[in-house]
Amino acid sequence: MINVFQPSLGDDELAAVGEVFKTSWIGRGTKVAEFEEAWAAHLGVGRSHVTSTNSCTEATFLAMELFGIGPGDEVVLPTVNFVGAANAVAAHGARPVFCDVDPELLNPTVEDIERCLTPKTRGVLLLHYGGRPGHIVEIAKLCQERGIWLMEDAANAQSSSVDGKAVGTFGDISAWSFDWGKIAVALDGGILYAKDPAVTAEAAKRAYLGMAQSSGFSEAHRTQTRWWEFEVSSFSRRSIMNDVQAAVGTTQLAKLRDFVKRRRLIAEFYDSAIAEVPGLRTPPPLPDGHESSYYIYWVQMDPAIRDAVARQLFDEGIYTTFRYQLLHKVDAYGSDAVLPSAEKAAASTLCLPIHQALSDSDIGRVVDTLARAVRDRTHG
Ligand SMILES: *Cc1c(COP(=O)(O)O)cnc(C)c1O
Question: Is the residue at 5 inside a domain?
Answer without folding.
Answer: no
